[in-house]
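Why do we care about 3D structure at all? Because function follows from shape, and shape follows, mostly, from sequence. That is the central idea of this module. The next example makes it concrete: a single protein chain, its amino acid sequence, and then its structure expressed as tokens.
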Amino acid sequence: MLGVLKTKPFFTDKEKEQILAAIEAAEKRTSGEIRVHVESGSGKDPLARAREVFEKLGMTGTKLRNGVLIYLATKDRRFAIIGDQGIDRVVPENFWEETKERMGHFFKEGRFTDGVCHGISSVGELLAVHFPYQSDDLNELSDEISEEA
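And the structure:
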């Protein structure tokens, strides 16, 4: 009989709660949508893989095309942040790289949850400026952290 090898999740339940709380706090101020995706890695360029995951998660389906994905490839030790067309049109030129750099400082210290929460907060602030929360806003995408082995 073959056993099934289960991998340990990258984030603990408590850490996931912190990340979900950060997403919820950010999305209370914006019509934008923020998702986090974690996988061990794909061997691909993290930006290219993030674009694939973005599509797979249906993130191009938001009304204002203002979804943002934080993608982590844990085994590859790489990550990327991408935004949909609506947000890409309005972000400052180096916003994604600067946010990624600040997150990377946390990651280098082994503070992955803090780094992700910092990225979510930064993205949320920018989204709130360009896509403020409206009274009729709907949460168009799941806030759950998606994971692949």
